[in-house]
Design a protein that fits this description.
With 311 residues, the protein is mainly α. The chain is built from 14 helices and 8 strands. It has 3 domains: 72 residues, no CATH class; 64 residues, Rossmann fold (3-Layer(aba) Sandwich), CATH 3.40.50; 168 residues, no CATH class. Helix 5 runs antiparallel to helix 7 and helix 11 packs across helix 12.
Length: 311
Amino acid sequence: TCGIVDGSGVLYDAEGIDRAELTRLAESRLMISNFDVARLSPKGFRVLVDEVNVKLPSGEIIDDGLSFRNNFHLNPMVQCQVFVPCGGRPESVDLQNVGRLLDHENHPRFKYIVEGANLFFTQEARLRLERAGAIVFKDASANKGGVTSSSLEVLAALSFNDEEFAEHMQVTEDNIPVFYQDYVKEVQTIIERNAQLEFDALWREHQRTRTPRSILSDDLSLAIVKLNENLQHTSLWDNVALRKIVLEEAFPNLLLKKLGLDTLMKRVPENYVRAIFGSYLASRFVYKYGTEPSQFAFFEFMSPYFSKVQQ
């Protein structure tokens, strides 16, 4: 890690930020204003937003720390393998300033960009960076974990009655329920698994079509949403045996073990269960077969499920 920008300012060290000190801040949830600057190399510096006339190791004078922080991602001194913007103003990088993320040879200053903040780049800027050789994973793909986490939190609330929810999911100053701790871990596992599926699909489709990944992210999402809507209103949902097989895969294991599938299907509103059923099948199909499947692909995809129904 060579640079961090947060609400308090900029921390940068071309030789790498001290890992132990960085870990201390992360575990204590502290901003870089609390970083021990004695841990910086001779090339490192910290500039806080309320500071003025700060001299960098290069001799450059920073007149205004706030302005320096707000535009640091455009500073030509910053070059690294991975850029992960996780905050900032929408459209911080657009077609007017995206050129500042390229060097004098028109190569990207960041090899990989993972857009953790929604809308940090405009679509035109993403495509310009991809044409220059950057590997960009846009917000629509990078932030799906947050949607998954929220959905599974709501699912737990819908699954338990009030007494069960208080026992298993309600965190107090004195108690963090064991189920809650385990559920958090399972949610993280689900997010990681889904992220791997998304990555594999994007990488494969890009290799096959050479379509920019920033466009493929939207194509995958649209394909999943469309198929999900269709699946929820087909005869597949009416096949109760099939429905149960799919939901046993889709529901978190901890909820299944704690309450059982029948209880979950009774307690969780049908429209929510339909959405789980449809989105699970749709995402798995699109991730496996892409956005342009053959006419027989869905039959092939569903065959293992129908085989289980017949057993």
